[in-house]
Recover the amino acids of this structure.
């Protein structure tokens, strides 16, 4: 696997005639005779050539360097198979050539049998590159270095048979078990991968004595092999170019070997530099994290910098290192970087390495946001939403804690004037903006908010998270909004609480008071001209409108109001709450309405009090007077109305009223 003869071994057309007698001694002797007095040629600048770093690990490992289509286009561009001088093949009767339609078939058009199908050379190269994670450019250069197959317009069967020189030692014939183009390419790729992955090599990373030529008398020198890729090249071709070989490129020199020299030059000419550099802070970070053998892996590209900031990034096998003067140096792993890199102008540069949260989630913070890696996927969010999620995950309350993992990136809604950012999770959403803060929205409370139009509806934006009040009689969850609150639990449901209705509920000590929990949303009845808003609770209702105010309606007093038709009946709207007069002889409850009052207690019942009958009762000092408490509603006997009291009856016949005492 060494090029002793200059050039691609078109010389195989001659070399095959000598194979049977080609021993190590003859190779060495022939090399002396052929190169001892050759004229020097100065044609290439080797000032950057480093025998200890011929190719970087990143370049050799870049399996994605070319697609199969790109490989095919490259092969065709180097050799379009237009050699029609087929007569020259007769000069080599021992060699076989592929000739079709009056021209030689070269590598760019050749096909190879595999599993009953024909594969192009491009496909064979691509498959080997992918399977062994080797740069296809390395394999292309190897085919040229060993057999000249890329540019040879009339290759023969021996060149294909030993296409990469694998299994062809300098001291013996080629091993037939490695014959065949596909076999050769894949074995070469496999060997390179083995060394890159830390497998055995006779020239490991570090200081090694490397000869200039198979003949040990030609000497050699100690080389500090800096990476595994270069180690792999020396395992494949175990000689370094001497001063003459470098000075005389593309010619030959005394005691020269040219395989690694030619690999270096051909790669640079066809694909650019095979060497990549990691500099400054990024190099320090890379080396402290294990270099090529660490979690970051080999370098794949040279750094890209914006010196006006300044900031830089560099691509490695497993991600990218980012550096910014005011932030420092951080690594973004491949799966996160695949999402982040295209959004770096939006997210800014990283502020941290990957952080383990302890909740089966990894996060990385950036200048303008956070990327979260979860079992559900990788998602982008902002710092505020991330902090809400983190605090929610730490919550002691298992109900509050069940938000789960994100299932979307952060999104923006422009439906409202202020705008709303939101991110969806397995069991809810985090929503908000800088004005109203960011809060969890989930479960039954979210359903109620949705029912009322989210942030563009009557509630507006949430201004708190979901709060669980353990001190509540049966436990209550609530969430505050710009214009109200959603409250409830699984027993009584979740309901809107806002405006004047909420003020009345608050005045009555919320769920701790006599009304208890709300059991309905705020509803509207259009039965009356003015309309009535009402909300039901465990033990009563809050009713009203802006004209007559909002009041509690409950218990026996409510039953009487209901009996008389609520707001559309003779009493009309309530104009006060339920009042307990402790100064009354036996205590009295009453509630005022547009057209009367409902009064009473548990002893004497609750009764309507209105019109002329009420005026007479008032004139007689209500329950403090001689009549005492009413014990019946207002009744009618013909044209006469009357109401019975503890100590008498009030009568009214449209013309006069009178009292009959017991």
């Amino acid at each position: 696997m060494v090029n002793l003869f200059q050039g691609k071994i078109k010389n195989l057309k001659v070399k095959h005639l000598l194979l049977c007698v080609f021993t190590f001694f003859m190779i060495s002797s022939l090399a002396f005779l052929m190169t001892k007095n050759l004229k020097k040629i100065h044609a290439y600048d080797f000032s950057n050539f480093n025998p200890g770093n011929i190719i970087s690990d990143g370049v050799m490992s870049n399996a994605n360097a070319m697609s199969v289509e790109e490989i095919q286009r490259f092969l065709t561009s180097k050799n379009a198979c237009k050699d029609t001088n087929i007569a020259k093949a007769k000069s080599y009767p021992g060699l076989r050539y592929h000739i079709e339609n009056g021209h030689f078939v070269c590598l760019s058009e050749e096909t190879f049998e595999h599993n009953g199908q024909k594969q192009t050379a491009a496909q064979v190269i691509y498959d080997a590159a992918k399977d062994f994670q080797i740069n296809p450019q390395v394999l292309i250069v190897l085919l040229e270095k060993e057999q000249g197959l890329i540019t040879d317009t009339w290759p023969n069967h021996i060149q294909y048979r030993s296409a990469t020189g694998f299994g062809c030692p300098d001291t013996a014939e080629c091993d037939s078990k490695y014959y065949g183009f596909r076999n050769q390419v894949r074995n070469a790729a496999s060997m390179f991968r083995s060394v890159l992955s830390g497998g055995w090599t006779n020239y490991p990373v570090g200081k090694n004595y490397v000869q200039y030529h198979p003949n040990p008398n030609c000497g050699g020198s100690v080389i500090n092999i800096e990476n595994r890729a270069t180690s792999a090249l020396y395992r494949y071709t175990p000689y370094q170019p001497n001063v003459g070989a470098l000075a005389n490129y593309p010619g030959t020199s005394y005691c020269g070997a040219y395989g690694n020299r030619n690999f270096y030059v051909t790669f640079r000419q066809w694909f650019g530099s095979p060497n990549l550099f990691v500099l400054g802070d990024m190099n320090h970070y890379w080396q402290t994290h294990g270099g090529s053998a660490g979690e970051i892996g080999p370098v794949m590209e040279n750094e890209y910098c914006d010196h006006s900031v300044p900031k830089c990034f560099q691509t490695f096998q497993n991600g990218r290192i980012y550096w910014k003067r005011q932030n420092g140096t951080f690594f973004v792993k491949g799966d996160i970087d695949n999402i982040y890199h295209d959004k770096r102008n939006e997210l800014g540069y990283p502020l941290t390495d990957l952080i383990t949260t302890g909740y089966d989630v990894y996060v990385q913070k950036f200048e303008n946001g956070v990327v979260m890696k979860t079992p559900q996927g990788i998602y982008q969010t902002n710092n505020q939403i991330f902090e809400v999620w983190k605090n929610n995950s730490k919550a002691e309350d298992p109900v509050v804690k069940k938000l789960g993992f994100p299932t979307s990136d952060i999104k923006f809604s422009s439906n409202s004037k202020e705008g709303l950012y939101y991110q969806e999770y397995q069991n809810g959403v985090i929503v908000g903006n800088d004005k109203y803060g960011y809060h969890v929205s989930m479960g039954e409370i979210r359903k109620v908010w949705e029912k009322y139009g989210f942030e563009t509806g009557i509630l507006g934006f949430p201004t708190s998270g979901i709060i669980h009040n353990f001190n509540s009689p049966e436990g209550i969850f609530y969430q505050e909004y710009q214009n109200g609150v959603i409250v409830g639990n699984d027993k009584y449901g979740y309901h809107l609480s806002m405006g004047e209705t909420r003020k009345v509920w608050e005045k009555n000590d919320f769920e701790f008071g006599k009304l208890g929990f709300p059991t309905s949303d705020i509803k509207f009845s259009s039965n009356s001209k003015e309309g009535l808003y009402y909300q039901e609770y465990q033990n009563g209702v809050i009713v009203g409108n802006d004209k007559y105010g909002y009041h509690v309606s409950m218990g026996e007093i409510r039953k009487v109001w209901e009996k008389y038709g609520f707001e559309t009946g003779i009493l009309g709207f309530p104009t006060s709450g339920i009042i307990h007069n402790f100064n009354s002889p036996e205590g009295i409850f009453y509630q005022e309405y547009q057209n009367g009052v409902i009064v009473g207690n548990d002893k004497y019942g609750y009764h309507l009090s209105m019109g002329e009958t009420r005026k007479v009762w008032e004139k007689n000092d209500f329950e403090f007077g001689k009549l005492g408490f009413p014990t019946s509603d207002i009744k009618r006997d013909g044209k006469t109305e009357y109401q019975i009291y503890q100590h008498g009856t009030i009568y009214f016949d449209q013309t006069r009223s009178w009292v009959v005492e017991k």
